[in-house]
Write a structure and sequence with these properties.
- This protein is of the alpha/beta class and 481 residues long.
- 38% of the residues lie in helices and 21% in strands.
- The protein contains 16 helices and 22 strands.
- It has helices spanning 44-59, 61-64, 67-83, 85-96, 100-120, 156-169, 184-196, 210-219, 232-245, 267-279, 299-311, 330-340, 378-381, 397-404, 420-429, 465-469, and strands at 9-12, 15-18, 24-29, 34-40, 128-129, 135-143, 146-150, 173-177, 203-205, 225-229, 249-252, 258-261, 291-295, 314-315, 348-351, 353-354, 368-371, 388-394, 412-416, 434-437, 457-458, 471-479.
- It has a 7-stranded mixed β-sheet with strand order 15-17-18-13-12-19-20, sandwiched between helices. A 6-stranded mixed β-sheet has the order 9-8-7-10-11-21, sandwiched between helices.
- The longest helix has 21 residues, at 100-120.
- It is globular.
- The protein starts with 8 loop residues before the first strand and ends with a strand.
- NADPH dihydro-nicotinamide-adenine-dinucleotide phosphate binds at residues 150-152, 154, 177, 179-181, 209-211, 214-215, 218, 229-231, 234, 237-238, 252-254, 286, 332, 335, 383, 385.
């Protein structure tokens, strides 16, 4: 897999160029542990140049485009993403370690974000507000200006699509700092934006380390809005930096999302969702469902059926396209294994199988299903970010809500039940940004607003809602006598 661009460069003001420090960082293939290339180690000087290029774009060609013209550029970009389908999928699979089919799904999502936000760009409208005689009052939705985007390594294409897509649709100029562990598709996206005809400076991409390039972006006084997806700890730093400059911030910080299986659930239908939502992308998914709550009447049945599904899971290199690939890094593998060491062997119900011929340098962990824990156990409370699910029994609806809402997080929840009244009651009572009834995740749902409460963050991305987040509302009151 050789990218068609030079990944050792940064993309600023519509041009590829070496980073200011002239140094690079290694890029690892998580499936093998081998170095597959190098990326630029951008720092505060590159971030500063990128913010200046973005400001110039807003004052120049980019800022002068109509909403319809911005939308057309995004649609063209989406077409180019689709035309580079195989290259992007292979790049993401190799860089992130996710099975090829999952990487293909991410390319489809990226193209769809470009299509959705391209189509929406000229459909964001203000209001006229009835007011006193002699006045006409209306609202305008305007771009913030330069927006800063920090994305993690787990779903680079999807998170870039939802964040950059919406920001560009509203006419912001973006500076993107991708994660150092996986940033090839961010760089590819920048080059496709260039090919699509985006004016110089509308999108700038500066790879580098989080506490160098990332921190410089969050602290830059020229950045008017910050959007961050990642850990709670780094999210706190980003919010503190946003507070310093008094700019709005969107934080998406993961979760400990539950699926609630009631005794009247269609378990045949639920089963693939119960398992896949925990092991997709090796569990390194902000909206992973890491807690499965089952009404006691069906606990034995669900446990046995999930255990059977787990025993059939195969783990190996991304390009082998099995159920589960490696974790992103040796560090992430250490984190997950140290969590697993908290479980007593008797609590491990079933594990998947890492293929014997999986490369020894890859960061593989067998998916693990755990039961018998107290809901307050660390394994049932903390985000593990690996292929680990915990089964927890509950007695009745009240008990289910108590356990489901009993973590610091609140990103996603789902209810499996054939009782319509219960579905409606729980949709209101569950503490989460998204609640799914008899499904989980709605196949990604580009159109559906997404974000959390509590330690899962605040602000919403995806759907039309993101367009409001990436714009500022101006009220105009005209007095005409
Ligand atoms: P981080 O939150 O540290 O990384 C996410 C992004 O933030 C990366 O682009 C990173 O850059 C950047 N970053 C790191 N430090 C700073 C900083 N001081 N200022 C600005 N940006 C910064 O997550 P990790 O990759 O360290 O993963 C650790 C844990 O975080 C995981 O185990 C998981 O629990 C959680 N996580 C959650 C995600 C989610 O989707 N909600 C995604 C990823 C992780 P760089 O990587 O280059 O240092």
């Amino acid at each position: 897999m050789t990218p068609w661009f030079d990944p050792t460069q940064v993309f600023i003001g519509g041009r590829w160029q070496p980073c200011a420090g002239g140094t690079t960082l290694p890029l690892e293939n998580p499936s093998t542990g081998e170095e597959i290339g190098r990326i630029a180690r951008g720092d505060h000087r590159d971030i500063d140049a990128a913010v200046q290029a973005a400001e110039a774009a807003l004052q120049g060609e980019w800022g002068a485009l109509t909403a319809a013209e911005r939308g057309r550029l995004l649609l063209h970009l989406g077409q180019l993403v689709s035309e580079h389908f195989d290259a992007l999928a292979e790049m993401e699979a190799t860089d992130v370690g996710k099975p090829l089919q999952q990487a293909k799904n991410d390319v489809i999502a990226l193209a769809r974000y470009c299509e959705f936000y391209g189509g929406a760009a000229d459909k964001v409208m203000g209001e006229t507000i009835p007011f006193q005689n002699g006045f006409t009052v209306y609202t305008l939705r305007e771009p913030h200006g330069v927006t800063g985007h920090i994305v993690p390594w787990n779903y680079p294409m999807q998170i870039i699509g939802r964040s950059i897509g919406a920001a560009l649709a509203m006419g912001n100029a973006c500076v993107l700092k991708p994660a150092e562990e996986a940033c090839l598709t961010a760089l590819a996206f920048a080059d496709l934006a260039r090919q699509a005809g985006f004016p110089p400076g509308a999108l700038n991409v500066v790879p580098g380390l989080g506490d160098e390039a990332g921190a410089a972006l969050t602290a830059h006084p020229g950045v008017r809005h910050l959007s961050f997806t990642g850990s709670v700890g780094t999210g706190r730093k980003v919010q503190a930096a946003a507070a310093e400059n008094l700019v709005p911030v969107t934080l998406e910080l993961g979760g400990k999302s539950p699926q609630l299986v009631f005794k009247d659930a269609d378990v045949d239908k639920a089963l693939p969702f119960l398992v896949n939502a925990g092991i997709q992308n090796a569990g390194q998914t902000c909206s992973a469902s890491s807690r499965i709550l089952v009404q006691r009447d069906r606990m034995d049945e669900v446990t046995e059926r999930m255990a059977e599904a787990y025993r059939a899971l195969r783990v190996g290199p991304a390009m082998a396209d099995l159920n589960v690939g490696p974790l992103i890094s040796a560090r992430q593998k250490d984190i997950v294994e140290s969590y697993l060491s908290l479980a007593d062997p008797s609590e491990v119900i079933a594990r998947g199988e890492v293929l014997d011929n999986a490369p020894k340098g890859g960061h593989y962990v067998a998916p693990t299903l755990i039961s018998g824990l107290d809901p307050d156990h660390r394994l049932a409370q903390e985000e593990i970010f690996g292929p680990v699910q915990v089964l927890l029994p509950f007695e009745d609806e009240e008990d289910a809500v108590r356990i489901a809402n009993g973590t610091a997080y609140g990103l996603v929840a789902s209810v499996w039940s054939s009782d319509g009244g219960r579905q409606m009651r729980l949709a209101k009572r569950l503490r989460a940004g998204q609640v799914f009834l008899n499904n989980y995740g709605a196949a990604g749902g580009v159109e559906l607003p997404f974000g959390g409460v509590g330690h899962s963050g605040h602000g919403r991305e995806k759907g039309f809602e993101a367009l409001y987040g990436f714009s500022a509302l101006k009220t105009v009151a005209a007095h005409h006598g």
